[in-house]
Design brief:
With 227 residues, this protein is of the alpha/beta class. The chain has one domain: Glutaredoxin (3-Layer(aba) Sandwich). Helices cover 32% and strands 15% of the residues. It has 7 helices and 7 strands. Strand 1 and strand 2 form a beta hairpin. The protein starts with 18 loop residues before the first strand and ends in a 13-residue tail after the last helix.
Length: 227
């Protein structure tokens, strides 16, 4: 496996457009839908086989409700096929708008890395202990943590999930704040700050709000700290 790009897009660069199938409703969604009308929090996830991604999407949904009054829309992109996503979210509805990108084309265009599967990476993944959502009794090996979170949720992987995991591993996830003109103002890439110990982590609402304020994407009103 090789890394898909030279690295994430740089701050201040134009965000690549995309057109993807929406999970909610029979339509497509594009970056151009937001240009000129609102800023956008764009989050690119692995397939639904990833329990960290499923939980991050739930966390993102809560944040999206607080960001929307500030003029920031949200869109989660899940790397699975449309039927698989609709099956899951039929029973677990979410408020955050969702789109699917089973071929990871958006991940590649935004430079979200797919790591080289080297012996060093395999060793690092085997040795690290994580508890990214805080739900586990103690930090666990990555696969053990994944299995434990699946069990908590009662999640049963589909054949599509198994194919997605085989095709995607070890794909990282990424988040981007894009302004009304389509320019990337902030980004966060999984494991960029903590190495492998950062697997599964997702920025909380306070971090997202602080990033939006720092980039000038929110009005500088005193009530923001209460949102």
């Amino acid at each position: 496996m090789t890394q898909a790009s030279q690295g994430p897009l740089q701050l201040g660069t134009q965000a690549p457009d995309f057109t993807l199938r929406a999970v909610q409703g029979d339509r497509t969604v594009s970056l151009s839908d937001y240009r000129g009308s609102s800023a956008l929090l764009l989050c690119l996830f692995r397939g639904l086989y990833c329990p960290f991604c499923r939980r991050s999407i739930a966390q993102m949904a809560a944040s999206s409700e607080k960001l929307k009054p500030l003029g920031i829309e949200s869109l989660a992109v899940v790397a699975t096929d449309l039927d698989n996503a609709r099956l899951y979210y039929r029973f677990r509805p979410t408020r955050v708008p969702l789109a699917v990108d089973p071929d990871l084309t958006t991940h590649r265009s935004y430079g979200v890395p797919r790591l080289d599967l080297t012996p060093e990476l395999v060793q690092a993944v085997a040795s690290v202990r994580i508890n990214p959502t805080g739900e586990l009794a103690e930090p666990m090996a990555v696969q053990d943590a994944s299995n434990a979170l699946d069990k908590m949720e009662g999640y049963k992987r589909t054949e599509t999930d198994r194919r997605d995991e085989e095709r995607q591993f070890p794909q990282l996830k990424g988040q981007f704040l894009i302004d009304r003109d389509g320019v990337i103002r902030w980004l966060d890439i999984e494991c960029a700050r903590e190495g492998i110990a950062g697997i599964g982590k997702f920025p909380g609402h306070e971090e997202l709000l602080a990033a939006a304020q720092h980039c000038g994407l929110t009005p500088a009103f005193g009530h923001l700290d209460r949102l």
